[in-house]
């Protein structure tokens, strides 16, 4: 099973995160399938590769709680299923 989760990068006390599609059995810093976004909690910046995220969600990937919140703020789920409120 594939998950969309955060992968920690950056230096000590200055974390930034990549949003990656990764196998469930891999550890947090393990090899990812594809990088699909970027999140900086200090500057509150996000970059999302929306077509890649939609591809993985359509194939059955499950976002973690934090990634799901980031995707909700970016309104990615509205593009995935405009008529349904599955992820709200």
Automatic annotation (TrEMBL):
Tell me, in one coarse class, where this protein mainly resides.
plastid
Q: Does the keyword Plastid apply?
A: yes
- Protein name per the record: 30S ribosomal protein S16, chloroplastic
Q: Note the superkingdom of the native organism.
A: Eukaryota
Among HAMAP family, the record links this protein to: Ribosomal_bS16 (MF_00385)
Which protein family is named in the record?
Belongs to the bacterial ribosomal protein bS16 family.
Name one process (GO BP) from the record. mitochondrial translation
What GO cellular-component annotations does this UniProt entry give?
A: chloroplast; mitochondrion; small ribosomal subunit
**What is the annotated localization of this protein?**
Plastid, Chloroplast
NCBIfam families per the UniProt record, alphabetical: S16
Source species taxonomy: Eukaryota, Viridiplantae, Streptophyta, Embryophyta, Tracheophyta
What InterPro entries does its record include? Ribosomal_bS16, Ribosomal_bS16_CS, Ribosomal_bS16_dom_sf
Keywords attached to this Swiss-Prot or TrEMBL record, sorted alphabetically, are: Chloroplast, Plastid, Ribonucleoprotein, Ribosomal protein
- Provenance organism: Pertya phylicoides
The gene from which this protein is expressed is rps16
